[in-house]
Amino acid sequence: MILYFSATGNSKHVAKTAAAAVSQSLLSIEDAVRNGQNSFEDEVIGIVTPTYYGGLPANVESFLKNSSFKADYLFFLATYGMKTGGVDRFAAKALGREFDAAYSVKMPDTCTYYFDVTDQEKIRQTLKESENQIRTVISHVQNRDKGRFVQDSLPMWIAKPFHGMYEKGRRTSHLHVGSSCNGCGMCVKFCPAQAMEMESGGRPDWTHDQCIMCLRCLHECPQFAIQYDDKTSRHGQYVYPEESSGQNG
Length: 249
Ligand SMILES: Cc1cc2nc3c(=O)[nH]c(=O)nc-3n(C[C@H](O)[C@H](O)[C@H](O)COP(=O)(O)O)c2cc1C
Known about the structure:
33% of the residues lie in helices and 21% in strands. By secondary structure, the chain is of the alpha/beta class. The structure holds flavin mononucleotide. The site of flavin mononucleotide (FMN) has 27 residues, from α1 and β4.
């Protein structure tokens, strides 16, 4: 069984490809939480997630803290854009036990308040290289290899304060809706944290505590009307090809 969270499709693609290659079922963490599932038993269990601020998205951390896993081979895989920081170590801590193996796959970086995703050739190249990394992970999983195969990590004395910045970065006061919003409500419908609501004026708004700052709303908005401060409007939108909203849940 491969459990995954994915806001913009990178981790979903990796999880799907790995699940097919190692003949495992696929379940999104969003669906597991919706169904109240928190106990998992299988021969192989993999957990696939994006990296946020060198650690876990808040929803994945809480899922791992509140779930139990029984498997002969339990592995963790983080997708990331630049630095995995301490993501696998934070995951092991949330779980309360070590993984048999931890992996990473470098993908386009969806944190567009820092990075630009407008260069399509660069995106194409990154995705092409990611396929080799996915193949390597699959062969490790097929061999039931054990160990830490995570790239671009940071020592924990750097990863801890880095991840500490997540709390401030995920404040919804950073997010705003521009005048091009046509009130279609897709952002509200597909928010993985149910952190958004349609206001009486027909425009979306966020509920502070729940937002995990996955930026699915920003990347999937058909009008590109959702922005993070003044940092994202020139950096483009990104969703893994063929993994648009509605298919992510
Ligand atoms: C709020 C936020 C923080 C992120 N922080 C990091 C990070 O610390 N290191 C990194 O390499 N990538 C970071 N990323 C990029 C994602 O981990 C990466 O693009 C991932 O593949 C997205 O997966 P998804 O498409 O399945 O949601 C961040 C993305 C977001 C939205």
